[in-house]
Specification:
The chain is α/β, with parallel strands linked by helices. It contains 11 helices and 16 strands. Strands 3-2-1-4-5-9-14 form a 7-stranded parallel beta sheet, sandwiched between helices. Strands 7-6-8 form a 3-stranded antiparallel beta sheet, with no helix packed on it. Strands 10-13 form a two-stranded parallel sheet. The longest helix has 22 residues. The radius of gyration is 20 Å and the shape is globular. It starts with a strand and ends with a helix.
């Protein structure tokens, strides 16, 4: 199989490229930055330097491939409303240009790098009212240190539960809206072209090459940057936010598994209850719940740095808990995360 990886010189994209090559597949990369930092991409990989919003570059990249792993995206939560055009342009327009090119070239298989951020808050249950989708947390509650969502009907505390792929999307920032839009565009493309889209909803990805010191960096990268300066990681809220941290090598394996399994015979879709079996979404996570405080503490131990400081600070767009139900990808694609959390953090800290 010959695969185009958009954004293939990026953090996750380059890991997907290496995994594809190891599995014996041909790879072509489309990336606005070319090959990226020295050594990120193996020698001999064909790289087309171009923006995914450029129809000519995309047409050249799509020509002759069997499938596309769409990794190219502007990432992060967004700092303020001035970021809205950037996310809509890079992520949604870019995806639309890619899908139109794939339709013209009769490329029928797309694996889309989606995200758990489309869920908003994760799953919750009230002891009296059952499953609950809590509204966004208010500035007043967060400023007062009331971090846990409450049942909007009775005001009781809620129990966080795993979020499955059939949860109703509730995107709460510019990036999340753009990722959901990518999935919806992919659905239209699959229906109209007869293609197959697999949306992989990556949870909190970490590992070597994770970008540092940008407003869009993940929390693991921010903690590592602080520890390298000799500073204590600053943990927002009370550190009890639950997340699913998954290593980039596991994410790359999941992506290649989806490309292979879903491209081969569609068997995963065939056993699905999805009304449109050409479209299937999967959570990609470790399946283990950990808190942001756990992450900061483990990183400080691994790096021999100062003890994290819990600050009580908050960001209004953040959600409290979101952790993955990974049953679908385990049962249908026979994939499970393999990288140990602590050892995976060691690989993160060994890179610049």
């Amino acid at each position: 199989m010959h695969v185009l990886v958009t954004g293939g010189a990026g953090f996750i994209g380059s890991a997907v490229v290496r995994e594809l090559l190891a599995a014996g597949h041909g790879v072509r990369v489309l990336d606005a930055g070319g090959r990226g930092p020295p050594g990120r991409l193996p020698a001999g990989v064909q790289v087309i330097r171009g923006d995914v919003r450029d129809p000519d570059a995309v047409d050249a990249a799509v020509r002759g491939v069997h499938a596309v792993s769409h990794q190219a995206a502007k990432v992060g939560l967004g700092v303020d409303l001035d970021d809205l055009p950037g996310y809509a342009g890079a992520n949604d327009l870019g995806t639309a240009v890619l899908l139109a090119s794939m339709a013209r070239a009769r490329v029928r298989h797309l694996v889309l790098a989606s995200s758990m951020v489309i869920y908003g808050e994760g799953g919750y249950r009230c002891v009296e009212h059952g499953p609950i989708a809590p509204p966004p947390r208010t500035r007043e509650d967060l400023a007062a240190g009331r971090f846990e969502p409450l049942c909007p009907t009775c005001g009781r505390s809620l129990r966080p539960v795993l979020v499955g792929e059939d949860a109703v999307p509730d995107p709460r920032n510019a990036y999340a809206v753009s990722k959901l839009s990518q999935e919806l565009l992919g659905r239209v493309w699959a229906r109209e072209s007869g293609g197959r889209m697999t949306a992989l909803r990556y949870h909190n990805v970490f590992g070597p090459g994770l970008p540092h010191d940008t407003p869009y960096a993940g929390v693991a990268a921010i903690f590592v940057s602080a520890l390298r300066r000799g500073a204590a990681p600053r943990v927002f809220e009370d550190g009890g936010q639950r997340r699913d941290f998954v290593h980039v090598d596991d994410v790359a394996r999941a992506t290649v598994t989806a490309l292979q399994e879903r491209h081969a015979d569609g068997s995963a879709a065939a056993v699905s209850a999805d009304p449109s079996p050409a479209v299937r979404a999967y959570n990609v996570g470790s399946g283990v719940q950990r808190t942001v405080g756990d992450l900061a503490t483990t990183l400080a131990e691994v790096m021999g740095g100062p003890t994290p400081v819990v600050t009580g600070e908050y960001r209004l767009g953040d959600v409290r808990h979101v952790t993955a139900d990974t049953a679908r990808i385990r049962h249908e694609l026979h994939w499970t995360a393999m990288v140990d959390f602590r050892e995976g953090l060691r690989t993160l800290t060994m890179t610049g």
